[in-house]
Amino acid sequence: MTTSPPAKTFTGWVAHDATNPLTYTSFTPKPFTPTDIEIRVTHCGICGTDVHTLRSGWGPTNYPCVVGHEIIGIVERIGTEVPTLRTSPASASIRVGDQVGIGAQSGACLRPECEACADGEESYCTRMTGTYNGRYPDKSKSYGGFAARWRGPAHFVFKIPDALPSAEAAPLLCGGVTVFAPLRKYGAGPGKTVGIIGIGGLGHLGVLFAKALGAERVVAISRSSSKKADAVEGLGADAFIATGEEEGWAKTHSRSIDILLSTVSGPGMPLGQYLRLLKRDGVFVQVGAPEDALPPLMAFSLIQKSVKVTGSNIGSPEDIRQMLALAAEKRVLPWIQKRPMEDVNAALKDMHDGKARYRYVLENKDGEAQAKL
Ligand SMILES: NC(=O)c1ccc[n+]([C@@H]2O[C@H](COP(=O)([O-])OP(=O)(O)OC[C@H]3O[C@@H](n4cnc5c(N)ncnc54)[C@H](OP(=O)(O)O)[C@@H]3O)[C@@H](O)[C@H]2O)c1
Ligand SMILES: [Zn+2]
Ligand SMILES: [Zn+2]
Fold first, then answer.
1. Which residues form the Enoyl reductase (ER) domain (predicted)?
2. DSSP state for residue 92 in the 8-state scheme
């Protein structure tokens, strides 16, 4: 148990602008409050969102910035009010020394008059705080997990089930819940055919979770056939479509899929052709967040089959708890490549170049010894 006063500064891998490499230096985290938890970071996944944010791809990032929102670590400090928080009953069971995780969200208003928060849909709260590049209500900046420590509201800190290895658990906190929440919401399960578009960090988890949820058929949809063996023989997809290689794919596979989940992160996706894959009343869910507009749509793409086009933002704290429980029960383990945290700049470049198979997880050496597995 830490008895020293909370530190005023942390150290981590800080971005100072959109182009230069991250440097290991100090930064000022939020002040520690009675509703916060502080951890020593042992692992942090690299998510596509880190890449967009570091290069100011969605608009200007508020530098200095520390990204990373697939965080695993060991609890070192628990605020005095955490055990009795009415808004966050699950936090009461968290103890110093526990292994916990933090995802892409670290704040919401949690007020009863907020429709999203009252419904347990915190990721749609208009006052949500992202784990990095955001601000807490006291105006302090939020900083992510490419660092030695993280601190923030207990409401967004989750116990990691013992059955999950530490490094593999990391990508579940953002990538895992981002695919799990819409797949479950739109009924991926027995009798349904699910298509996962883009087989990257989110997409490979999409195949795994669609299977874990009991979908009858899972189709992996990628630009080339280079990931086919991984998807079919490794991840368990039942079929594979290589959109850049298979002539007439949209016609061949038309009206075959109930739920399409698009994790595509780049420009120029063939949206109209993706929609041709849907059955009548099918749903297309966009979770990937390209930096430019989606392609235009012909009205008939929607009219002729009564399809729905929607999006989904990460998942709620309750979604995260249920996703972790399912992952532990069914052994949904992301495919990861561990990289020492000090290799973060090289790992980011490889992620940007599409080399991850399928998620890089940064490891903090000091933390490793005490983390489980
Ligand atoms: N909605 C949310 O709450 C949420 C949460 C987390 C992340 N995200 C976003 O989700 C996206 C994916 O993240 P990630 O971590 O999975 O990234 P990733 O590992 O880089 O995977 C993205 C995949 O998209 C496909 N792709 C990339 N550019 C494409 C293009 N121009 N056309 C068609 N397909 C393309 C690729 O799959 P193939 O090689 O198989 O074609 C790639 O593997 C990012 O934009 C990220 O910001 C959203
Ligand atoms: Zn993410
Ligand atoms: Zn709210």
1. 17-362
2. G
Per-residue model confidence (pLDDT) at position 4 = 87
pLDDT per residue as tens digits for the range 334-347: 999 999 999 999 99
Tell me if 316 CB under 6 Å of ligand 1. Answer: no
Q: What length is written for the chain? A: 373
Q: What is the pLDDT of residues 66-75, one digit of tens each?
A: 999 999 999 9
d(CA 15, CA 65): 5
Fold of 175-311: Rossmann fold (3.40.50)
100 lines ligand 1 (CB under 6 A): no
pTM above 0.85? yes
* pLDDT of 366 above 70: no
Cα(125) to centroid(ligand 3), Å: 4
Architecture of domain 10-172+335-367: Alpha-Beta Complex (3.90)
Q: How far is CA 121 from CA 74, 137, 317, 336, in A?
A: 27, 19, 8, 29
How far apart are the CA of 118 and the centre of ligand 3, in A? Answer: 7
Q: Where are the domains of the chain?
A: 10-172+335-367, 175-311
Q: Which ligand is nearest to the CA of 129?
A: 3
Atom of ligand 1 nearest to the CA of 227: 40
